[in-house]
Amino acid sequence: MLQSLRERVLDETEPLAGLLRKCLILGADTGSDSLRNWARLELNGYGDDDDVPSYRRLPNPTITYDSMSGNTWMTNGTMDALQLPAEAREHMPGYLACKQPIEELEELAKTKAVSMRTGHLSFSEMVWNSKLSPFQQVMNLRYSMTGSVFTGLVGQVRTKLVDIVADLTAGVPLTELPPTARVDEVMRERVGHVGDIYNTNVNYPTGPTAVGQEAIAKSEGMTVAEVIALLAEIQRTLASAPAGTARDEAGSALVELREVVEQDKPDRGEVVRRTGRLRAAIGRLGNAGATAATSRAAEALTDMAMNGQFS
User: Fold this and answer.
1) Least CB-packed of 45, 78, 105, 194 within 10 Å?
2) Which letter does DSSP use for residue 137 in this model?
3) 8 Å CB contact between 180 and 261
C-alpha cells in the first residue's frame, strides 16, 4: 500500500479521496491510529467537537448582507468582518472553519461563487439587530468567496499527503513498512494536533518520565511551569470575556486542565483529553487572544505527552 501511494501521490489526475482511502489501509497496516483518523476526518468531514487543522481555516472572507431601513431595501451589500459593530464582531472566531468532506470541497472548487452562513454569523446578526432601531434591520449575513479559495484548500491537503508519503518512505526499504511510532511522528509534524487524533494511541521512544509543576523538561521551548503560567494568563483573559454559557464552559475546562497539570505526576491521557476539551471550549468562545494562547499551551502539553514526559 505504501508503494502504491508513493507511485500515485504525484499524479495530479489521481482522485484525492482515493489516495486518502489508501491511507486508511496504510494506517491499519502500520498500526497508526493518527494516520487513519486524519484520513477519516478528511474523507468524512470534521464534527462540531473536532479541532479543525490550520489549513482548513480561512481568514474571515468578505461578508455579504441584505438590509432594510424604513421603506428602503438593499441586497448584496458587502463588508469586511472588521466593519461589524463591536458588539457583533466579538462573537466572530476570526476565521471560517471548513469542515466539509474533501469530495464536497472539490465540488465547491468547481463553482464560480460560494456563499456560506454559519452559526457565528447568525448570532452576530441577532446582536447587531438588537442595537438597531425598530425600522432598521440587517438580514442574511453570509460569507461570500470564489471557488478558487477551495481549490487552494484542496491543494494544501494534497501537498500534506505528498509530504507525509515522502517522509514515510525516506530511508525505508520498499519491502518494509515504517514503525508505528515513526508514522505518528510524521503525522504530528506534518498535520499537527487535530481533535482527538492523538488521544487513543500515544507512542514514545524512551518511556514515561513524571514531570511536576517544578520540572524543567521542555517542549516547544516551554517548561511545565511556563505552561501553567500561560494557563493562568488565559484564565485572566476569560475574566474579561462576556458572561454566558461559552465563558462558563471555557472556565470549567481550564480549571480541569490546570488541576491535572499541576499534579506531581500528571496522567498523560488526562492531560491530552482535557487539553482537547479546553481547545474546543475556547474555540466556541470566539476570543482571539484566548484562542492563540490556548493553541500555544495545547501544542506544548501535547508534545510533552507524545514524548513521554508525563506518567
Assistant:
1) 78
2) E
3) no
DSSP conformation class of 141: E
Distance between alpha carbon 122 and the CA centroid of its chain, in Å? 21
DSSP string, 152-182: HHHHHHHHHHHHHHHHHHTT--TTS---HHH
Residue that is written with C-alpha cell 482522485 in the block? 15
Question: Measured between alpha carbons, how far is residue 184 from residues 1, 31, 200, 280 in Å?
Answer: 17, 9, 12, 22
pLDDT at 216: 35
The pLDDT confidence band at residue 117, using thresholds 50, 70 and 90, is: confident
Beta strands in the chain (DSSP E): 57-59, 62-69, 72-79, 95-97, 113-116, 136-146, 218-219, 222-223
At 58, give phi and psi (nearest 5°). Answer: -95, 125
Phi–psi pair at 174, nearest 5 degrees:
-65, -15
The three-class DSSP label of residue 116 is: strand
- Which residues 6+ apart lie within 8 Å of 122 measured at CB? 141
Buried b (16+ CB within 10 A) or exposed e, 69-87: eeeeeeeeeeeebeebeee
194 — phi, psi (to 5°)? Answer: -110, 115
Summarize pLDDT for 51-94 with one digit per residue, the tens: 888 899 988 789 999 999 888 989 999 988 888 888 888 778 77
